[in-house]
Design goal:
single chain, 141 residues, mainly alpha, 75% helix, 0% strand
Length: 141
């Protein structure tokens, strides 16, 4: 067990951050599949958009375990918006016709409301990540 020096906050090892991010990614994918299984229409679509950005946030934390929540959320939002805006070019649509993975990651058709729902996902991911960081900083395991 790691002991923190007096007066300094406990900062978990990157492996602990990565494990938490991997678990969050698994929960996010499960939630996305669950929403698709039990709901349809706009609710499922926009929940999927928000969860897409949450998943990107978890990938950012996997790659950079000590990233600040605001930076991870910002990166996830910028990535999600970039993918959505790239759909205006038609390139993602062409790639999606050739690959299931490309279809899942890049989508195919631009939809302006998606931009809002990506922001909702980034905000939710930031809130949970920031709370976990604060919780850990307060010395909770």
């Amino acid at each position: 067990m790691k002991v923190k020096p007096a007066g300094q906050p406990f900062i978990p090892a990157p492996s602990a951050h990565r494990a938490a991010a991997a678990a969050a990614a698994l929960v996010t994918v499960t939630a996305g599949l669950g929403v698709r299984a039990v709901a349809g229409g706009d609710f499922a679509k926009y929940a999927g958009d928000a969860l897409y950005t949450v998943l990107v946030h978890t990938v950012v934390v996997l790659l950079a375990p000590r990233v600040r929540p605001s930076v991870a959320a910002g990166a996830a939002l910028v990535f999600s918006w970039a993918v959505e805006l790239a759909q205006l070019t038609g390139v993602p649509a062409e790639l999606s016709r050739r690959s299931v993975v490309a279809r899942l990651v890049l989508g195919s058709t631009f939809n302006a409301p998606d931009l809002l729902w990506y922001a909702v996902g980034a905000g939710c991911a930031w809130a949970v990540h920031a709370r976990l960081v604060a919780w850990r900083a307060a010395g909770r395991p």
